[in-house]
Design brief:
Layout lengths: L1 E5 L8 H13 L3 E4 L1 H9 L21 E6 L1 H11 L6 E5 L14 H10 L2 E6 L2 E3 L3 H4 L4 E2 L2 E5 L7 E7 L2 E8 L1 E5 L7 H4 L11 E7 L9 E4 L4 E7 L3 E6 L2 E6 L3 E6 L4 E6 L4 H8 L13
Parallel strand pairs: 1-2, 1-3, 3-4
Antiparallel strand pairs: 5-18, 6-7, 6-17, 8-11, 8-15, 9-10, 9-14, 11-12, 12-13, 14-17, 15-16
Length: about 300
């Protein structure tokens, strides 16, 4: 099995962890292929590996059977952007602390790699969002796994976002910005802004204002068949358009049109992984000192 390994710039004390994971992959009969990001990082720290590299800009289904993000949740989002429309499955191995999306911990690596080698895993389609306009700024990387958001720049004044669902007017949000989140992204930025948690395979999207100035508005869950059109009205001449961890600057009077992408990302689900367990273990979901055990 040919496995791409992607990573960001990390602290140098992660080098032994990365090398250990790569060695374990070889032990389990997997063929690691390094992305340029993690290969260049290792090289800058004097580590030379006789491993092939992936050609990130021209990935095809025949190049890789699977791709691993080695780091944290940000690395997994970068890996989703890297595999793009290819349909190559993605798995995250967590080298950091929380790792909500990068769910495999270092102490679980051997079991996870053995399952991959034996084919003991399932694939779960996760919704992506696609931005239909702003092509000059976004190019072909116009999709996001967690959310698409609009935000003001620095200390600029609040912005007004006029929102339509299809052709129907929904609301005008006076706020520091607006988030459109997928079910996967409902546990990310949207949750920190008071949004609901949505089960990851739900056919729904969350529209959530960031620090709204009209306090009678709340996060809104809508079916994901709607095309969502955002018309911006900003006092400054520029706003930020954010797709997961990527940001571009757009005009303050821009229109941003968002829909469910026509292709999903395929997330690897190991046999012992469960979304509800992850909620309880990593977000302390429902934690109560009065609890004495499982219900």
């Amino acid at each position: 099995m040919r496995v791409g390994v992607n990573g960001r710039e990390m602290a140098s004390d992660n080098i032994p962890k990365v090398l250990d994971v790569l060695q374990r992959m070889l032990h389990h009969g997997l063929e690691p292929r390094l992305s340029s990001g993690i290969a260049d990082w290792l090289q800058r720290h004097g580590v030379q590996l006789a491993l092939p590299r992936t050609t990130e800009g021209h990935l095809e289904l025949d190049d890789l059977d699977l791709c691993i993000g080695l780091g944290g949740d940000g690395t997994l989002l970068d890996t989703v952007a890297m595999v793009g429309r290819t349909g190559i499955p993605v798995l995250g191995i967590n080298l950091g602390r929380l790792g909500f999306l990068s769910s495999v911990r270092l102490e679980e690596v051997d079991a996870a790699l053995a399952a991959l080698s034996a084919g003991h895993y399932a694939l779960q389609d996760r919704t992506l969002l696609e931005v239909l306009d702003q092509t000059d700024a976004l190019g072909t990387h116009n999709f996001a796994l967690n959310e698409v958001s609009i935000s003001k720049r620095d200390s600029a004044s609040m912005i007004a976002v006029h929102v339509h669902l299809g052709t129907a007017y929904l609301n005008t949000y006076w706020a520091d910005g607006l988030i459109v989140a997928t079910p996967t992204g409902s546990t990310a930025y949207s949750l920190s802004c008071g949004g609901p948690i949505v089960y990851p395979t739900s056919d729904a999207l969350v529209i959530n204002p960031i620090s709204p100035h009209n306090l009678n508005v709340r996060p809104f869950v809508v079916p994901d068949h709607f095309t969502i059109r955002l018309q911006l009205e900003a006092r400054s001449d520029r706003c930020l358009l954010n797709l997961d961890s990527r940001s571009v600057t757009i005009e303050g009077d821009s229109t941003v049109t968002i829909r469910r992408a026509p292709f999903p990302v395929k997330m690897v689900q190991l046999e012992d992984q469960d979304f509800l367990d992850t909620l309880r273990n990593k977000l302390n979901w429902g934690l109560d000192q009065r609890s004495t055990g499982d219900r």
